[in-house]
């Protein structure tokens, strides 16, 4: 059965890798013209006392890419202006609130105090006060400080692909190029981080993550040891009469460990995302992938291994930490069958209930009503409160991977766990299709960049299940069959290396043949295309775009014809312009 599950898993993985890789290449080939197709991110531009960063970048690309270079946009440090713009937004909300209040009752002019929470201080006219404050913040937010990085755009996709996938100078630490994320995928706050500090930051975060992961086993071990009848009666003997009640005893034995473990994991995704942001990744997709990887490793160590070791053999934990590495699979193999019931309850508490919570969205509903009651003052506030956000790949994907791990581990050892996992996947399939199509907004487009990570984690789960099965069989009368399983990890690793070499390049490189085909077709269809105007402002920081729009002449804006707005199914800020002949395919996607 171990061979059967391994071969079937590898067959399905190979087929899926082929399908996903083909879909990715088809999407990239059929995608409409986007700024990231022509743009690379240049980082670590060396300083020059005689030239500015923008002059350096322009001179470098005119010399080294003379036939393909088109334009560039130097990156500015917008962290300080961003804070000022956020502050301006809050003041604009208050200004809108008082103007609305005054328009409803013109006979009574509003007033406010400038002190803390409006409790004391000088009494002023809030409309004049906030108007002057907003004008001051506009001037401060316009200031820019340039950093040694730039978004460089090319005349063709072929030129961008060559630049993004090659080394630019002899020194591999200078003039570093990589594909630019699409404009909405850029995580602008990290572009201002000096390149030389990234290695130090990642070392510090790695150490912090190591301690977070392994020291987190201590509270989990305590909870798992107390979340049973004997542990609670020993720690709190006065509760013994209550605990012995049949209903309470069943609840403690069946659901309390899973609930306790879920409570401990509530704040973990936010902590891991904060760590990823501190490492300096420049795109939201990269942040999501790194957070997902760490979330999965954390769950593997603390939820899977931690629950097995500390829940069934807490008294042997010290021996486990000091024993030979060869004995670890044997120790865990003994514990796995004993924890099957715990993982069944964990699947029901975390998996089934989690899917039900996803469709109900109780937390966003409660947060929305709290915002409406306490924070909403204007229409803009209401629209922001109604924003559903984007689907959380950094938490949902590794959670699904954990159930893959449980299924592969228990498929041979305790198959009665599989129906519970199948029910979870069936429910999740239906619910998440509905949520993606009808609820969540799309935050960015990564063209299936997550898939190699998904494939790698399933392969890891497969190898772990094989090693633990070998450890379990070595303790049984069938110990002589253990050598027959040694071939499985070897074949699985070979299969992974085959898929990595055959399919993964489609996810990390852009074929020059595809780029040339798209460029040729585009030149034939639009010979007079002005690509420079399309790319010149694509990568301006949203803060500076907003400042420029607020500084534009309001009279000229009023003279322009207002576009017709059509609300979407959700009455939120996701309103769109009247669809053109080119937008039919996008509107059909919801």
Describe the structure.
This protein has a domain of 62 residues. Helix content is 63%, strand content 6%. The protein is globular and about 80 Å long. The strands form 3 sheets. It has a 4-stranded antiparallel β-sheet with strand order 2-5-1-6. A two-stranded antiparallel ribbon has the order 3-4. A two-stranded antiparallel sheet has the order 7-8. The longest helix has 29 residues. α5 packs antiparallel against α24 and α13 packs across α15. It contains 28 helices and 8 strands. The chain is mainly alpha-helical. This is CSC1/OSCA1-like 7TM region domain-containing protein. GO terms for molecular function: calcium-activated cation channel activity. Keywords: Calcium, Ion channel, Ion transport, Membrane, Transmembrane, Transmembrane helix, Transport.
Biggest sheet record: 4 strands, antiparallel
Distance between the termini: 44 Å
How many H/I helices? 28
Structural class: mainly alpha
Radius of gyration: 29 Å
Query: How do the strands of the widest beta sheet line up side by side?
Result: 2-5-1-6
What fraction, in percent, of the residue positions are helical?
55-70%
Q: What is the β-strand count? A: 8
In percent terms, what proportion of residues is strand?
5-15%
Let me know the average pLDDT.
78
**Quaternary class:** single chain
Low-confidence stretches are: 311-317, 553-590
Entry keywords:
two-stranded antiparallel ribbon, 28 helices, disordered C terminus, ion channel, Csc1-like
Break the fold down into its secondary structure elements and pairings.
Blueprint: H1 2-30, E1 39-43, H2 53-64, E2 69-76, H3 79-104, E3 112-113, E4 123-124, H4 126-141, E5 146-154, H5 157-164, E6 176-179, H6 198-215, H7 217-226, H8 229-235, H9 240-243, H10 246-254, H11 256-264, H12 268-278, H13 284-312, H14 317-322, H15 328-338, H16 340-360, H17 362-374, H18 379-386, H19 393-413, H20 418-438, H21 451-473, H22 487-502, H23 505-508, H24 512-525, H25 531-535, H26 542-551, H27 554-559, E7 565-566, E8 576-577, H28 584-587
Helix pairs in contact: 1-21, 1-22, 3-4, 5-24, 6-12, 7-11, 7-13, 11-16, 12-13, 13-15, 13-19, 15-21, 16-20, 17-18, 19-21, 21-22
Biased composition (Acidic residues): 549-561
Biased composition (Polar residues): 573-590
Keywords: Calcium, Ion channel, Ion transport, Membrane, Transmembrane, Transmembrane helix, Transport
């Amino acid at each position: 059965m171990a061979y059967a599950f391994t071969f079937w898993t590898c067959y399905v993985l190979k087929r899926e890798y082929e399908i996903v890789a083909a879909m990715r290449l088809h999407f990239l080939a059929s995608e409409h013209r986007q700024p990231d197709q022509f743009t690379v991110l240049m980082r670590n531009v060396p300083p020059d006392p005689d030239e500015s960063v923008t002059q350096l970048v322009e001179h470098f690309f005119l010399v080294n890419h003379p036939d393909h270079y088109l334009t560039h946009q130097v990156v500015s440090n917008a962290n300080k202006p961003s804070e000022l713009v956020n502050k301006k937004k809050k003041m604009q909300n208050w200004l809108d609130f008082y103007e609305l209040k005054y328009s409803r009752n013109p006979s009574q002019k509003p007033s406010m105090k400038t002190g803390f929470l409006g409790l004391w201080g000088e009494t002023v006219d809030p409309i004049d006060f906030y108007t002057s404050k907003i004008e001051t913040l506009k001037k401060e937010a316009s200031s820019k400080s340039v950093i040694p990085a730039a978004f460089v755009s090319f005349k063709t996709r072929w030129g961008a692909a060559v630049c993004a996938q090659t080394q630019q100078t002899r020194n591999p630490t200078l003039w570093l190029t990589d594909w630019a994320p699409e404009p909405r995928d850029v995580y602008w706050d990290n572009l201002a981080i000096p390149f030389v500090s990234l290695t130090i930051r990642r070392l510090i975060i790695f150490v912090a993550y190591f301690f977070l992961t392994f020291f987190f086993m201590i509270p989990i071990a305590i909870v798992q040891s107390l979340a049973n009848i004997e542990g609670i009666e020993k720690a709190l003997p006065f509760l013994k009469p209550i605990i012995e009640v049949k209903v309470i005893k069943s609840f403690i034995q069946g659901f309390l460990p899973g609930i306790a473990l879920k409570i401990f994991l509530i704040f973990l995704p936010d902590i891991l995302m904060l760590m990823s942001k501190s490492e300096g990744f420049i795109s939201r997709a990269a942040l999501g992938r790194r957070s997902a990887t760490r979330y999965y490793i954390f769950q593997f160590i603390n939820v899977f291994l931690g629950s097995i070791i500390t829940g069934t053999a807490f008294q042997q934990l010290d021996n486990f930490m000091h024993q030979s590495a060869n004995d670890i699979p044997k120790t865990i193999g003994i514990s796995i069958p004993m924890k099957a019931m715990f993982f069944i309850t964990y699947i029901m508490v975390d998996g089934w209930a989690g899917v039900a919570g996803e469709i109900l969205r109780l937390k966003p509903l409660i947060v929305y009503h709290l915002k409406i009651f306490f924070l909403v003052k204007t229409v803009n506030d209401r629209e922001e409160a109604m924003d559903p956000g984007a689907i959380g790949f950094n938490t949902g994907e590794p959670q699904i991977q954990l159930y893959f791990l449980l299924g592969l581990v228990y498929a041979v050892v305790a198959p009665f766990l599989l129906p519970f996992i199948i029910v979870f996947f069936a429910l999740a399939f239906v619910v998440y299709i509905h949520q993606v199509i009808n609820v969540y907004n799309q935050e960015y487009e990564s063209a299936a960049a997550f898939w190699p990570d998904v494939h790698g984690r399933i392969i890891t789960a497969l190898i772990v299940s094989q090693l633990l099965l070998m450890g379990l069989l070595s303790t049984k009368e069938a110990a002589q069959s253990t050598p027959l399983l040694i071939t499985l990890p070897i074949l699985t690793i070979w299969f992974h290396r085959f898929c990595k070499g055959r399919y993964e390049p489609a996810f990390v490189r852009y074929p020059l043949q595809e780029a040339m085909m798209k460029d040729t077709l585009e030149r034939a269809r639009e010979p007079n295309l002005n690509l420079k105007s399309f790319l010149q402002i694509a990568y301006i920081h949203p803060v500076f775009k907003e400042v420029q729009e607020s500084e534009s002449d309001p009279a000229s804006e009023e003279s322009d014809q207002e576009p017709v707005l059509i609300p979407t199914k959700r009455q939120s800020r996701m309103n769109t312009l009247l669809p053109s002949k080119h937008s039919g395919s996008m509107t059909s996607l919801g």
